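Worked Example 4.2. Consider the chain below.
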Amino acid sequence: MRLHAARTKDCHEGAGRKIRRVPGYLAIIAGKDEFLVDQDGRACFEKAKKAAGADAEAEIITGQIIRVDDARVLEVQFTESVKTLSMFGSKRVIWLRNLNLVSDSVQAKSDEVKESLANMLKVVVESDPAVSIIISATPYDGRRKDLANLKSEATDFILHASPSKSPFDKGDAQADAQVALAVERFKTLGVKFERGVPEVLVGRVGQSTRLVLGECEKLATYVGAGGTIKEADVHLIVPTFGEGEFFEPIEALAARDLKWGMESLDRYFFNEDSSRPLLIVLQNRLRLLIQIRCLADSGDFRVSDAGLPKGQFEAASGRHGPTFGSAAKSSANLFSQNAWYVSNKVAPAAARFTLAELVDLQLACADCFDASNRGEDESSVRAMFLRALAVKRSA
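Applying the procedure from the previous section yields the following structure tokens:
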């Protein structure tokens, strides 16, 4: 999400009162994703330099502090830079980059740092119109109002939405932007990808843009120029970072692929002793699949290996949403989920399993929890996968 505000013009506040000056150009960019904030900061910096002309003096000041005492040093450096004008009348462009004085850190909360920050922002609003200032702040604590108070003074005010706690939450602008960047990067690298690959990639890396783009490069190298990236490749090549919670065995089970399922369990239990995290996520997925399968059997959904047709989830939500109860996100309420996630990520498996098979799997998960109490985590889950994938029930 980006919020833009036009810079207010200089104005008299009454006879004899001081005129408040603002920079010729002021851009403020803030957010928790360092890559996105830095990308927009550089774009504003280049924009300001171009507007200032070839003779303009440009300077980048690192806004990061490690100790509380560093804030005073930064304040002096920034103040001198803003107030030092060219003898020949050329303009100045200053980028205060990666400012972390508005983060949630212990240092940023100290009175000394807050005082230095207040002094620096006072210098900003009183700077000469010949000076252009860009401030990019990350990580950014959205509860802080220091930068937000300058919104009306800014030519460009860009606030990046914080990532959701888990991928595919409703209204997740961060994930949507990263999916678009992944698609663009894959095209630039000259590789194709199966449906849903960018979204799965974003989910696995915990919504870090830098990691998303880095893993795009890795996947493109893996399949080679002109190759096609499959969802299985993402699970094989890309490790789970941060809040990523997608488990490869669940995707293999959903694809009804026995070979992939057994190999994915090898990888899972190589790193994990307990089956419980896997079973919890699997049960949540099965709850959704059972609801989708019921709606498909009743004729409300036309489900296929590609998922649900566009708009079908929204239409069914209008008809049946109230019946499912609260809109609070829960695997017990299909219509509280993200439309893309249900239609493209979850629904394809409902075309591969009957309702009876899905119910059997849900009951088998409960048996696996009991087996986990006896220390039989791996053997019980392997047995469940073999029963589900090796034999197909017709009813």
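DSSP finds 14 helices and seven strands in the chain. The beta strands are 25-30, 57-62, 92-99, 131-137, 156-159, 192-193, 228-229. Compare this with Example 4.1 before moving on.
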